[in-house]
Design a protein that fits this description.
This protein has about 260 residues and is an alpha/beta fold. It has helices spanning about 15-30, 45-55, 80-85, 95-100, 105-115, 130-135, 140-150, 180-200, 220, 240-260; strands at about 5, 35-40, 60, 90, 120-125, 160-165, 205-210, 230. The chain has one domain: Aldolase class I (TIM Barrel). α1 runs parallel beside α2 and α1 packs parallel to α10. Bound molecules: 2-phosphoglycolic acid. 2-phosphoglycolic acid (PGA) binds near residues 211, 233 and 235.
Length: about 260
């Protein structure tokens, strides 16, 4: 299976989120081979978007969450509040949150654990900066981020987690990682997850790529077996682009079906 996660960031309100959600439903309609689609509107639009996509193959995710259940935490949104909207996923540790809002490996770990405890599928983002990459530290950085994200997480039988490899230099830059570089990073992350995080457990992981994915490069990324899906920012705000990305995923899935 291939999974497409659309991260609408703080670009759209309730009305625009509803329109994008309807466009996502239309993009999937009638396709014999359709990817799993997760749309992530701002918190204020989660419940409305969930009503629109209920009983479809489109799921809803939050862009963040706090780790406590309830309490005096002005401005925060708890995992239970996220789940109450009908959302089934939560993005955790996006580089914008790390860079602009002081998230650390430790807080990302608390959020991942909280999401899993509430049966939300975390979409854990990791990625190196341009400087870290130039210094040959990509694996050291993303390995550290991944281990920290799951340091206190209880993985249940049947838990599903998504790991998004999002090189910071590729986000919003128009310069995605090459499929080969993404494959190498994915293979590394999967190995760390399987050997050091999951242990003998039966949690299932998917490794997604994110950073300047668009209709032109989606097929080349998605056709790689190592790439279980993509996290799409800017291009997911344009219904025509998003529809073309869904079509690219459909083509890949059709190819996979004919291979087996
Ligand atoms: P982009 O964003 O697709 O606009 O590069 C990806 C992300 O930030 O998740």
């Amino acid at each position: 299976m291939k999974t497409l996660v659309a991260n609408w960031k703080m670009h759209v309100g309730i009305r625009e989120s509803a329109a994008l959600a309807r466009a996502a439903l239309l993009a999937l309609r009638g396709r014999a081979h359709a990817p799993d689609v997760v749309v992530c509107p701002p918190f204020t639009a989660l419940a409305d978007v969930h009503k629109i996509v209920a009983r479809s193959h489109v799921a809803v995710g939050a862009q963040d969450l706090f780790w406590e259940e309830t309490g005096a935490f002005t401005g925060e949104i708890s995992p239970r509040m996220v789940a109450e909207t009908g959302a089934a996923y939560a993005i955790v540790g996006h580089s914008e949150r790390r860079r602009l809002f002081g998230e650390t490996d430790e807080t990302v770990g608390k959020k991942t654990a909280a999401a899993l405890a509430h049966r939300l599928t975390p979409v854990v983002c990791v990625g190196e900066t341009a400087e870290e990459r130039a210094a040959g530290r990509t694996e050291a950085v993303i390995g550290r981020q991944l281990r920290a994200a799951f340091a206190s997480a209880a993985l249940h039988e049947g838990s599903r987690v998504l790991i998004a490899y999002e090189p910071v230099w590729a986000i919003g830059s128009g310069h995605p990682a090459s499929p080969q570089d993404a494959v190498a990073a994915h293979a590394f992350l999967r190995r760390v997850f399987r050997d050091e995080v999951k242990g003998g457990g039966r949690a299932r992981e998917g490794v997604l790529y994110g950073g300047s994915v668009d209709a032109d490069n989606a097929f080349a990324l998605l056709r790689e077996d190592e790439i279980d899906g993509i996290l799409i920012g800017g291009a997911s705000l344009n219904a025509a682009q998003f529809t073309a990305i869904v079509a690219a995923a459909g083509d890949v899935l059709e190819g996979l079906a004919s291979r087996s």
